[in-house]
Structures are given as structure tokens and as C-alpha cells.
Design goal:
It is built from 7 helices and 10 strands. It is an alpha/beta fold. It has one domain: PAC-like subunit (Rossmann fold, 3-Layer(aba) Sandwich). Strands 1-3-4-5-2-6-9-7 form an 8-stranded mixed β-sheet, sandwiched between helices. A two-stranded antiparallel ribbon has the order 8-10.
């Protein structure tokens, strides 16, 4: 049965914000969430057992306890949740996955920040744009985050999450960052944290290490990026639609 199993019952959260980190173009969301978990020492909170999650077990160095490949981590002091994933969620199962996640977020009064990369191969500093559902536009306005200049489409599992948030009239924000479409992009992840997550949540996280360790991050994520490029299904990304909309 598709569900989210809370494993740390003594964690108390009050209308938390969630940052989504599914692997997508540039691996922006994954890099952001992995950094938040490490920098804030976030606690493993729940196992995500929704459709589209591969039946696999994750182990960590020098620890014997296994964890599911997609899970929630919590920081009760900051009322923050993150959706961390070590595997791609198949877009062919995105509908069931998004329905499962959205239902739980709605039941627990969680405001999600969904992250997506907009392919861009320029050498400019990545820009971060915002889209929303429900009253999420108020969060964007307060944070000074502008919408994309051109219309477009968010696809893959993250697009499904935004679609279901809209159907449920759930307040949500989609942060779209310009990113390298072929390689893991820690600079784009840094832009999302500094220009998106921090002004919306008020949580200040040191991001200098993301750029300083860019080569290490790229090496660590390269294998996952290659698996995603070789997959038949399309990963989450934002893309312009051009003049026909």
C-alpha cells in the first residue's frame, strides 16, 4: 500500500516547510537537499513508500542500519522537512507518487518547495525563478522571486507534484533554476539555496562549500546522472514551450 511511514514519532512539527530533492536535470534538487541534511544535521523522519519508488535498500558508511531510497528528514527547531532521494522516481509512475506525497502534505499542513532545473549552457550566474499553486504566490512576492520571463512546462515527477498540488489547492512553490543540463551543477544548487530557500524559509545555510567542493560533488553524482541519461523515461526539468502555449 502506498504510504509514508513516520519512524521518529517524538519529532514535533508546526506547519513545516518541505524542500523537495528528487534527482532531475543538473541534479539541482538532490544537491540542495543533501546539503541541507548534512549542514543542519537533519534527522531521519519517515520512509516514503509511494508508487514509483524502487524496492531498494540504502546503506551508509560505517553503519549497519538500512534506510529506504526515498525518505523524509526533519529539523523540528526550524520546522523544516526535506524529501531526500538516492534514486530517480520513474516518470511513468509519477501520478501515483505525486498523489501519495500530496495527500500526506495536505493532511499534515506542509508547504512544499519543489525544485526544478531549466537547461542553460551559458556561463552566467544561474537565475532562480518562481511559480506557485494555491497562495504560494504570496511567498514568492515576499521573497522577491520573479516568475520566468517565458512560459514553459515542468515535467517528470516534480511536474506531477506541482500538478497535484494545484488540483488539491495546496499552497506550494516551484523554484526553477538555470542549470547545466548534462552535469551535476552545484552552482545552480547554491543559487536555489541563497535566492530561493533562504528568503522563503528564513533559514540561512552556508553554501560556500558547494562551490568549493564542486569537483567532489560532480564525481559523487556522476554515476547517478549517467543512469538518468540512459533511462528510457524523462527526468524532472523545466523547459520553455515557445510561442505555442
Amino acid at each position: 500500500m502506498a504510504r509514508i511511514d513516520v519512524v521518529t514519532e517524538d519529532v514535533s512539527l508546526d506547519a513545516p516547510t518541505l524542500v523537495e530533492g528528487l534527482p532531475g536535470v543538473g541534479l539541482v534538487g538532490k544537491i540542495v537537499v543533501d546539503h541541507l541534511v548534512d549542514a543542519l544535521g537533519m534527522e531521519y523522519y519517515a520512509a516514503v513508500q509511494c508508487e514509483g519508488v524502487p524496492e531498494a535498500a540504502v546503506y551508509r558508511g560505517e553503519r549497519s542500519a538500512l534506510r529506504p531510497p526515498v525518505r523524509l528528514h526533519a529539523d523540528p527547531e526550524r520546522d523544516l522537512l526535506v524529501l531526500q532521494s538516492d534514486v530517480p522516481v520513474s516518470p511513468s509512475d509519477a501520478t501515483g507518487f505525486a498523489a501519495c506525497i500530496t495527500s500526506w502534505l495536505d493532511d499534515n499542513d506542509v508547504t512544499p518547495l519543489y525544485l526544478s532545473g531549466l537547461p542553460d549552457q551559458s556561463e552566467n550566474v544561474p537565475e532562480v525563478y518562481g511559480v506557485s499553486t494555491g497562495e504560494g504566490d504570496a511567498l514568492l512576492d515576499e521573497a522577491g522571486i520573479v516568475p520566468p520571463a517565458e512560459g514553459g512546462l515542468v515535467s517528470g515527477p516534480t511536474g506531477a507534484l506541482l500538478y497535484h498540488a494545484g488540483r488539491a489547492d495546496l499552497d506550494s512553490v516551484g523554484l526553477i533554476a538555470e542549470t547545466n543540463p548534462k552535469f551535476p551543477d552545484p552552482e545552480a544548487a547554491r543559487a536555489v539555496l541563497d535566492a530561493g530557500v533562504e528568503p522563503i524559509t528564513g533559514i540561512d545555510v552556508d553554501t560556500d562549500a558547494l562551490v568549493e567542493q564542486a569537483e567532489e560533488i560532480q564525481d559523487a553524482r556522476e554515476q547517478l546522472a549517467q543512469r538518468m541519461q540512459q533511462a528510457d523515461d524523462e527526468s524532472s526539468q523545466a523547459e520553455p514551450l515557445g510561442m505555442f502555449q
